Amino acid sequence: AIDPPLILLDEPASNLDTEGKAIAAQLITKALASHKTLVIASNESWETEYATHKINLS
Fold this sequence. Notes:
The protein is an alpha+beta fold. It has one domain. Helix content is about 35%, strand content about 15%. The chain contains 2 helices and 2 strands, in the order βαβα. It has a two-stranded parallel ribbon. β1, α1 and β2 form a beta-alpha-beta unit. The termini are far apart. The model has no long low-confidence stretch (mean pLDDT about 90).
C-alpha cells in the first residue's frame, strides 16, 4: 500500500457536487488524523479551515 507522508492537493473539490465535497472533507480529515502533511492550494474557504498555516497569494 502507498502511504506517503506528504500529500499535495490542488483545489481538491473544485468540480465536485455536495456529496463529493463531503467525501473530500472526510479524506482530508482522515489524512490529518494520520499525521500526514497536507499542502492544499484552494480558493474554497472550507478547504482552508483545515490549515494550521496559510500563505495568501494575492
